[in-house]
Amino acid sequence: MPANIPAHHPAMSRRTALEVGSISLLGFGMNHLDAFRAEAAAPTKLRTAKSCIFIFLSGGLSQHESFDLKPEASAEVRGEFNPISTKTPGLQISEHLPMLAKRSHLWSVCRTLSHGTNEHSMGHHIMLTGRSDVPVGFNPSRPMNTDHPSIAAIAGDVIRPRTNLPPAIVLPDKIIHRTGRVVPGQFAGRMGSNRDPWFIEASPFHVQSYGAFPEYAFDHQQRGGSDNRVFQTPHLKLSQGMTQKRMGNRLGLLKELGKQREVLDIAGQVESFDRYRSAAISLLNDDKVHNAMDVTHADDKVQERYGKNSFGWSLLMARRLVETGVNLVQVNMGNNESWDTHGNIFPHLKDKLLPPTDRAVSALLDDLEASGRLKDTLVVMCSEFGRTPKISQLAKVYARPGRDHWGATQSVFFAGGGVKGGRVIGTTDKIGGFPIDQPQKPENFAATIYRALGLPQTAYWHDDVDRPHFIYEGEPIAGLT
Q1: Transmembrane residues, as ranges (predicted)?
Q2: Backbone φ, ψ for residue 372 (5° rounding)
Q3: Which of 6, 24, 93, 272 lies in the 20 to 30 Å Cα band around 369?
Q4: CA distance 267 to 273
Q5: Helices in 130-222 by DSSP H: which ranges?
Q6: How far apart are CA 134 and CA 449, in angstroms?
Q7: Under 8 Å between Cβ of 178 and 338
Q8: pTM of the entire structure?
Q9: Helix (H) or strand (E) segment spanning residue 20
Q10: 402-457, pLDDT tens digit by residue?
Q11: Where do the domains of the chain lie?
């Protein structure tokens, strides 16, 4: 056993956790703090001071309109956008990412990440878990307990919390299809639902509205519906009737649990229970936690730099959470598969999707660099797949042309966490359809994140019958560091 992995102790049973949790610790209904789910953590807890902000663009960012333009290709391939030069000689990106172009010394791009599916649900599962293989019993319509665990779930399980907050958080929403089905790949899967990552759900679901609301909300099919959503940052307070005095009384009662601890586990394996209780108290009393989440009341100048929209607020919250000690924050930028541009691709990317992303990611990089945190914070940005080389037209549904799903290649953005800026990893063919050198797999992508989090190649998690499962399924992407 590696020296930095603590010795394994027996886990608290679910029944015991239920019995202890049944006293209703704080009397408020925040399910992520529910002691009913506070089972003992996996034995492979690892100490690390590294961080990652994982930006996921649900729907499929077009490589041709972002980081891998093909200006010499035919019109049906190259599209309407022009490349612009970046701060890095020889590196060009979309004209609609001008702020990132000025910061190319801070980031690099891999243009050759590839997998074998063009289907949304499987694509999400592959990229969010870092596993190319299809799990037994996979159901594209809903998450299954046989799914592979997400990167966020693994990070949350194996990393020791640095604060009373969990080590991995997902915001501002779960990824949900417009039909209302929850997309698989976001959860703990076969690790067990008790190890799902924490979700801060600040972005209400809307059946036909996409993008960075309210400022950049739109509908792919231009049906003209209204969108009155409000970005709902978590409001942390004691529940009605739960005064500070009553809370104190309850905490006093909890001290009596000390008499039961020897019964629960003579080795003191109530650490997980204590951790969840501490997290609950922290959320109610820690000004840093309140400040991290209350982004819509941040200084106006800060909000303007990030953008007063769901993309900007989400990345501002992610940065603040990292500053409080959260190791991995996954940010879903655009629910309802906002980046699924089968039609109207050029106006929607130009006017609705790329501008707020360009602004928010640039502000994030600026702040991390200014604070000295960029060197220890990996920022990654990807989708479930790229888009087809050829433009197509679905005239019955969309007014203007677009591109379809394409798993064969996508461009993935990397910054910080030891990544050297201004680099391009891999080359695609003349039409941006297939890698011609340095192809990368989702397993390499996940390994890059795990390395940035400081997890050793020997890291593993244990299932409910104590079997170890190694975390790394590939090597980190070569050439980034």
Answers
A1: none
A2: 80, 5
A3: 93
A4: 14
A5: 151-158
A6: 21
A7: no
A8: 0.85
A9: helix 14-21
A10: 999 999 999 999 999 999 999 999 999 999 999 999 999 999 999 999 999 999 99
A11: 1-40+234-293, 51-233+298-470
